[in-house]
Amino acid sequence: MTFIFVALSILLLVLMIVWIKVEPFIAFLITSIIAGLFLGIPMETIATSIQDGIGDLMGALVIVITLGAMLGKIVADSGAAQRIALFLMNQFGERRVHWAIALTAFIVGIPLFFNVGFVLLVPLVFSVSYQYKIPAMAIGIPMLAALSVTHGLLPPHPGPVALVAQFNADMGTTLIYGFILAIPMVILAGPLLGKWPYFQTMKVKPLEVFSAKPKPVEELPGLLNSLFTALLPVFLLITLSLVKLNVAEESWGFGFMVFVGNPNVVMLVSLIWATFSLGVIKGVKITKIMEGYSGAVKDIALILLIIAGAGAYKEILVDSGVSSQIGTSLEVLPVNPLLLGWLIAAVIRVSVGSATVAALTAAGIIAPLVTSGQSDPELMVLAIGSGSLIFSHVNDGGFWLVKEYFNLSIKQTFLSWTLLETIVSMLGLAGVLIIDLFVS
């Protein structure tokens, strides 16, 4: 009966978000209260459980996600992303323009949220399409693949960061595994898929209203500065994680490495550097930079609320004992826990639409298998992240973003964006299972 209540609570969450169009944060709170009542949590402690769930999860995430949004904002506004894109286009040339677009989107997509990176790079795709007489979707697919993979698998994006916190995984190790997966995923689902004859013959005319004017070249920051600043968080996280492995725990240096390698500290250092290297040194007033940061925080407010709501629902499952029961029951199934995590996230993704909601909800259900040591926490982050990307359709904002910007029909969007997301998700699962063979 307990499992039925859990299934009904998930169904209720899906119905409120998809059919009634309730804001996900509110839907999570309502679902958490109802689930708590039916699962036997005393009424006087339900509110406390919800508060604790939100506090525990947000305490680990809010700094990284907020600073990440600010970093993405200054990378975009300063023209650093445009500088990186122009350099790569010049280096690759017309014959390998698909690879240039993919690499550009991959680099830009690491510090930028999907929507920001998409809006930033779409004008580049359209201009390249016009210049080289290439169908827009043929080079749009590599861009979308790279942005999607970085969004689903690599910190500092909200989903991966939240999963790292949920499973107490190591951020640096997750990044290393994520890069091992992401590169072949982007290649297969990007430039190679973009050469499929269907995309080469797809005739669409992107709407001009979405083609923002780029900055004059003379106003752009230097290439080295742009690359270093955009990738500084990734560089620091990976480098410090590797260095920490060779430092004895009893030495004074270990404590220092733990401190400076903390994702919150890394993001703060990176943002301070970006503020000066891309802003103050270029003559931008600090007040204008801070206004941009404020706008970036407003853009991610709803994302933070969704994460908070998912934390409340997770805590209800934990406090009711259901989470442990589910973990115990799943232990006897002849299914790899990584496959199970991917499958749960995939089902919720198709039902709800939001990759972040799917990832965090799946994490709350699968957590006992990770905490009991039955699965590698870093690989579980990537398995659930991959599952949360599958089959984007009409209940996903990304579906409509792609449709409207590229001026596609519903059918064309399914055969391009939805197909791409499904391929990315399946490749992610395959890659996680292969890595698991070597690290388990």
From TrEMBL:
UniProt topology in membrane: Multi-pass membrane protein
Keywords: Cell membrane, Membrane, Transmembrane, Transmembrane helix, Transport
Regions that span the bilayer: 26-45, 57-76, 96-122, 134-154, 174-193, 223-245, 265-284, 296-313, 339-367, 379-402, 414-439
InterPro entries: Glcn_transporter
Pfam families (alphabetical): GntP_permease
Major localization listed first in the record, in broad terms: membrane
Keyword Zinc: no
Localization: Cell membrane
Full protein name: Gluconate transporter
Species of the source: Cyclobacterium plantarum
